[in-house]
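Annotators were shown the component list below and the corresponding predicted structure, then asked to write short factual statements about the assembly.
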Amino acid sequence: MSVAFDPAEKFQSYAHPERLVTTGWLEAHLGMPGLVVVESDEDVLLYEVGHIPGAVKVDWHTELNDPVVRDYVDGAGFAALMNAKGISRDSTVVIYGDKSNWWAAYALWVFTLFGHSDVRLLDGGRGRWIAEGRTLTTEKAPVPLTDYPIVERDDSVVRAFKEDVLAHLGKPLIDVRSPEEYTGERTTAPAYPDEGALRAGHIPTAASVPWSRAANDDGTFRKLDELTAIYRDEAGLGDADEVIAYCRIGERSSHTWFVLKHLLGIPHVRNYDGSWTEWGSAVRVPIVTGAEPGATDRR
Amino acid sequence: MTSLPSSLPSSLAEIRDDFLSFEQKDRLQLLLEFSNELPELPERYRDHPELFERVEECQSPVFLFVDVSAEGRVGVHATAPAESPTTRGFASILAQGLSGLTSTAVLEVPDDFPMQLGLTAAVSPLRLRGMTGMLWRIKRQVAEKSVA
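Structure shown to annotators:
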């Protein structure tokens, strides 16, 4: 059972306006049958401090990732997670989170791997909800009994692996990390601790378009004409392109993936979740340092 | 059960044992309690940001200041934003667990104390490294201030 779309005017110019809801819409629809609100944060305790009434928490580290292998949970694991959160296959899922929705977009992307059809982001995320003085609660809502089917994860459409990226060189690649990470000055975002990449720089030919350019200061997405100027005009992306986005562990690039796929409507966009923590430590993969994208030829 | 290092001061050993006595989920709850109980800065330090050192290993703005009394007792003071409860919890553990100890006792705390709390499955490595950074900075400040 799907909940009606948010008719907000801002969204109508986007390719897929049904992928976003406003804070006002969400507040008005809380508790509606068929709607499940999910908070997904970088900080594992933030939900406990206070969350949108009725929202459940999905943690990227302990719940979406496999505990042993660097991968996501499998079909059975995802079904169990959905049942633990009271989500049905036909639920409308609205995800929000901290850090301008990085982890919310990451969770949405993982839901996409399992083909969950109606999954949306709260424009502006947790920050905007709080800035507008809307209600938070520490109460946990009762979780209804659901029977989510076991659906195998499909990694072929929106996910790229290292081998895919190697074969992709020459086609559009978007590096969404900070300029310092792109040039190779550092391996982590400014003010972020080291997550263990041995080499610094970027994947040859990748264009540098930091994720934050797609967001306004309040964490909402920029309007379509602004996004078009950045990604289509400046980065030269078109609907016929196959695009891969990457960052450090795949969370910031999920944000850009969402923008390219759902707001600009570019059909073939994948997220390389191995990202720099894999590429920057892999043996004999080509790396370029400095501000220029560089060529595909190996040194 | 593996034997745990005995060099931990009793204040930290107690905190560690509390964490380890719980299941994973309740360990996070305990961390949240620490987060809520991060001691306020004493009046005399409140308007002196210049005294505080930023913990670069943490992504959230965490600031530390250590004082050592004439009797050689350490005081650990920290601030961390409410919207970063995990980091706040770590700062609180160290502020509460280390304050009141002698300089020598603080300097002898094993650098891997953050890894002994049984949180590695629940908290990403990046976070725990932030706590290691805090401990390292506290020890460095204690060493500097004990010499002077």
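Statements collected:
1. Chain B has a mean pLDDT of 90.
2. The radius of gyration of chain B is 15 Å.
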